[in-house]
Amino acid sequence: MTFVDTLAFQLFTLAFVSAILFYSGVIGYLTYRRFGPRRTYEHLKGTIVPLGMIGIVVTTIGMWGEIVWPLPGSYNILFFDPYLLLGAVLLGFALSVTFKVKTQYVGLMAAMTGALSIYYGYSAYQLGMTKEPLTMLFLYVALGGTAILTFPITIFIDRMVLEPLTTPVATPATSEAPAPASGSFFPSVVPGGFADADPQVALPWKVVFAGFSLFLLFAVGSAIIAIVIGNGALPAHLSSAP
Question: Which helix (H) or strand (E) holds 86?
Fold first, then answer.
């Protein structure tokens, strides 16, 4: 079977996804703090354009790899199984935001894909399947961690961004801030900042911010690792094209 080398391109698409998630996460957080859910939703609609486009590319390449099996032996399993699932997650998130339906189910799928990615990476590391098994393991763990941490982010999006825009209110709203829900983990926010003076409000937001910061750390880490590996692989792939 003819070997068709798409690995360098796949690495760069992974870097693009991670970089977009990092940038979108930072801007989305700042937008929510300053303007509330409506402007944050407009930000999300802008984010899903590049994510959806890359999702189409990733899904297409992943499906092709699963059917054609262009790589030698079991490398097809290692490099195309998680890749195809990533494409499905990206497309699912884009559709969820577009139609204002709950994103947490896509987030759950992302978490399961992330856990599977880490398992694939660890198994490949034990088998020594690449020339740099430790670097490859770091990439799979970083991407998997980003995907797993997407799940709580999507719960936050549902509760604090989509729900205030889709739930009818009985009285005229005075701001874009979501109405506080009884017993909700997430406190309400007003444009311009959080009510951090109240200890009952400050603690949940500290937990949210800690998880969100970890998500950003994994995202930027996976982008850097993917770019480094891609830069190392591209010259060799260009010099020995099929």
Answer: helix 75-98
